[in-house]
TrEMBL record:
Similarity comment text for this entry: Belongs to the BolA/IbaG family.
SUPFAM superfamilies, per the entry: BolA-like
Name of the protein described by the UniProt record: BolA family transcriptional regulator
InterPro entries listed in its UniProt record: BolA (IPR002634), BolA-like_sf (IPR036065), BolA/IbaG_stress_morph_reg (IPR050961)
Pfam families for this protein: BolA (PF01722)
Length: 80
């Protein structure tokens, strides 16, 4: 799996305003910004992203994914 493929999978199941994906083909990190995260706790946000990946998380196609998840307002407040 490539970073572009992983980014596309997440975007196909979750309306995102911004996605950054980096990794080595098995271990990934992502920054995901979505209005769908509003009102959700961090674990619920991660579960929402995992749901977009479905069986790929269980078949080891995506071995590990660390995430930073933000609403658009939270993302705007991040220092850059």
């Amino acid at each position: 799996m490539t970073a572009d493929q992983l980014r596309s999978l997440i975007a196909s199941g979750l309306a995102c305003e911004h996605i950054e994906v980096d990794g080595d083909g098995r271990h990934w990190s992502a920054v995901i910004v979505s209005a769908e995260f509003a009102g959700l706790r961090p674990i619920q946000r991660h579960q929402r992203v995992y749901a977009t990946l479905g069986a790929r998380m269980h078949t080891d196609e995506v071995h590990a994914l660390s995430m930073k998840t933000f609403t658009p307002a939270e993302w705007q407040a991040q220092p850059r």
